[in-house]
Design brief:
Elements: H1 6-17, H2 28-42, E1 49-50, E2 53-54, H3 61-73, H4 77-102, H5 105-117, H6 119-126, H7 131-151, H8 154-171, H9 174-189, H10 193-196, H11 200-211, H12 213-224, H13 239-246, H14 250-253, H15 266-274, H16 279-295, H17 307-320, H18 334-349, H19 354-382, H20 387-405, H21 412-436, H22 441-452, E3 459-462, H23 469-475, E4 481-482, E5 492-496, H24 497-503, E6 507-517, H25 525-528, H26 533-536, E7 538-548
Helix pairs in contact: 2-3, 2-23, 3-4, 4-5, 4-6, 4-7, 4-18, 5-18, 5-21, 7-8, 7-9, 8-9, 8-11, 9-17, 16-18, 17-18, 19-20, 19-21, 20-21, 22-23
């Protein structure tokens, strides 16, 4: 069985790093980037603010790492994205170690490659939120706890507890619940009651509690000690209760006001694209594992594990029961899905499921061909990249096809989809995301303001029909939004055609910068079609105002 070569991980790491050429995307990623910048500027790590206002939504680890990175690399895309890129690479390594511990070296490497090349990982390094760090912390905790279960060396358990604490400082109790789901089901099915009730768990809980103290102090000082503050529309808000209960469990119990009506199957449907090109292999592995356990009357045999399948199923049950769901919520258990998929591929290459192997190999070649063809449509038609880029695509695809045809190519079910999705994302990152973000008004105007030395305090946004969180980050200062003309007392105004109708006749101005914009997080067919794009975009204007007419 062939071992995944290390150079493939080097190539993937370089591809992740190229994502710094892509601007942070409105709404969430650019909001978090600005919050990191503000934290760096204030020098206050315990209290989190969003454009000067109290912020109670996400825990602070993303902002801590982002602020530290910006101190090193500067206030730019690299400064914001580098921590998540490093955590993504660490998640790949931790997945390898967990897969190796559960199975063997080859399966661990395959699992690492599968995780590294699923489409969600490329998305996470482009549109950076909390999920990359969360996923990395969770899979690290699983790897270290599994090492403790195998060796009984206490430092592995304590390291796993520290990783859980870091995960909780990234996105709350889900970082604790996933390990509980994984090992609780695995040990119960193995009847390993001594692991479930091991006294060492108490020490792990103490470590978690100690590491959470700084975050808890900040929450208590910022919210619990100041009940008069209006937070999310109400007073007497407890920051501690919010993070340790309402934000996660409250979405299941109905206590949380967040509700977008997402059905239970929402996250699985989104995995159809976010776990490409491996999604069909994963679903097959999930079905096989569940059927096997049922045949064995809910008891594991020696050499079997339920860390991955049990953890995935229970985590999905919890996440899918939430009243508010977004596609990236499921990313936390992608390492588990990757290991399950790797085990199935290893079994097929080892001679098991021969009929399934004969079906899956050509099916995944077809899937990869379709993805490569879609990439050509993007670079040749949607955002034309030029002849050199198209020729590069043709050469890479020709190389891929030669490997697909060659009888000497080993493990085609693993390597062909992996190489294919790498090719897809080389072009997708650099020739789809980069030109797409040129339609984001906030980053374009904010960067222009910073380059020209325009003080953000002299600029106001008026009737711009787009979330412009990114303008604050790229301008390196908060640009206020205003609603009525009497407040126009700034030197510059960013506005749209709607705002221009109000300003004309009241103010003299010169147009300092103008262009077109679109809400890039909500793509539609008419926008992607160059023939109809001009009808979908709107105009923006950065006006330099003179004195108002008397």
């Amino acid at each position: 069985m062939p071992k995944v070569p290390f150079w493939m991980f080097i190539l993937i790491g370089l591809l992740y790093i190229t994502s710094v050429s892509v601007d942070t995307m409105d709404v969430d990623a650019s909001q978090y980037a600005e919050m990191c910048r503000e934290m760096l500027q204030r020098g206050d790590l315990l209290h989190v603010y969003d454009r000067g206002a109290d912020y109670l939504d996400k825990p602070p680890l993303l902002f801590w790492t982002g602020a530290l990175s910006m101190r090193i690399f500067g206030i730019n895309n690299l400064g914001y994205k580098m921590p998540s890129i490093l955590f993504a690479l660490w998640a790949v390594f931790a997945t390898y170690r967990l897969g190796k511990s559960l199975y063997n070296e080859v399966t661990g490497r395959m699992a690492a490659l599968i995780l590294a090349t699923c489409q969600g990982m490329f998305l996470m390094t482009n549109d950076v939120r909390c999920d990359t760090i969360l996923m990395s912390c969770v899979v690290t905790s699983l790897w270290l706890i599994q090492e403790w279960a195998d060796s009984r060396k206490l430092y592995y358990l304590l390291g796993g507890a520290a990783a859980i604490a870091l995960g909780m400082m990234t996105k709350g109790p889900i970082a604790l619940m996933v390990p509980v789901f994984c090992f609780g089901t695995h040990w119960a099915l193995q009847r390993q009651w001594k692991n479930i009730f091991a006294p060492a768990h108490l020490l792990a809980i103490v470590v978690i509690a100690i590491l959470l103290i700084p975050m808890s102090i900040g929450l208590y000082q910022q919210f619990d000690m100041q009940p008069h503050k209006v937070v999310n529309g109400s007073t007497c808000t407890s920051g501690l209760r919010f993070f340790y209960w309402s934000q996660s469990f409250g979405r299941i119990t109905g206590e949380s006001p967040w509700d977008n009506g997402a059905p239970f199957e929402f996250l699985l449907m989104n995995m159809l694209w976010s776990f490409l090109p491996w999604i069909f292999l994963f679903v097959t592995a999930l079905v096989i594992n569940c059927a096997t356990l049922v045949r064995q009357r809910l008891r594991l045999l020696p050499g079997q594990e339920w860390v991955t399948t049990g953890g995935f199923l229970l985590a999905y049950l919890a996440l899918g029961s939430s009243a508010y769901q977004l596609p990236h919520y499921i990313f936390v258990v992608f390492p588990l899905a990757a290991i399950m998929t790797a085990k199935l591929i290893a079994d097929m290459m080892g001679g098991k499921y021969k009929r399934l192997h004969r079906i899956m190999r050509p099916a995944h070649i077809v899937i990869t061909v379709l993805l490569l063809a879609a990439t050509l449509a993007f670079i040749a038609y949607i955002f034309p990249a030029g002849g050199v880029v198209i020729l590069s695509w043709a050469l890479l695809v020709a190389t891929w096809l030669s490997l697909a045809i060659s009888k000497k190519t080993k493990a085609k079910l693993l390597f062909l989809p992996a190489l294919g999705i790498i090719i897809v994302n080389i072009f997708f990152t650099n020739y789809f995301y980069v030109p797409l973000l040129k339609y984001q008004v906030g980053s374009q105007v904010g960067r222009y303001m910073h380059e020209k030395g325009i003080d953000p305090r002299q600029v106001a946004a008026y009737k711009v029909d787009d979330p412009i969180n990114s303008i604050h980050f790229y301008a390196q200062g908060v640009v206020p939004g205003i609603d009525t003309l009497p407040q126009l007392q700034h030197r510059y105004i960013l506005t749209s055609d709607r705002g221009m109708k109000d300003i004309e006749g009241h103010y003299s101005y010169t147009i300092d910068k103008q262009g077109v914009f679109y809400k890039v997080s909500e793509l539609t067919g008419p926008f992607l079609d160059p023939r109809t794009r001009s009808k979908e975009v709107k105009n923006y204007y950065l006006l330099r105002l003179a004195e108002p007419h008397q």
